[in-house]
Design goal:
This protein has 169 residues and is mainly α. It has 8 helices and 2 strands, in the order H-E-E-H-H-H-H-H-H-H. The N and C termini lie far apart (46 Å).
Length: 169
Amino acid sequence: EPRYAEIPREMIESGDWVTARLNGVAYLEKSPLIEWLMVVSFKIFGVHDWAARIPVALSAVMLCWLTFRMGAWAFSLRAGLYAGLALATSIGLWLFTRIQIPDVTVTLTIALALWAFLRALDPEERRPAVWSAIMAAAMGLGLLLKGLIAAVFPIAAAVLYLAFSRQLL
């Protein structure tokens, strides 16, 4: 966990946001977005352990809000509220936001991409092109967070949905 906070601290110190370094050695194994988010947090709040956790904490809050919005859109306001509350009070979300890993943030991007896909397909949607752009942007952010998983999962789910609903071709 400390390496996730040390890399952004070194980015601030060196001024180089492109090449991640850990103890002065190039660390190119991970995608950079979570580190960039921590750099922004450090710039605003200073270099503290709690400031390093702000991007993941905000991602968890946004994921709960997104779950609420998805449920409200698909079913009802009450269903959305229950879905958001269920996620907010789940032990998994609580555990995965206590350590500095980008998994909650990647889950947010994947969920947003899937919701945007469904909204783009909705025949009553007035702006499907906007939702298509949101899907692409969410997958792009996910790529910068964790790599191919953020694009492969939504695309695979979309292709399977289209195939089973006979809309693929």
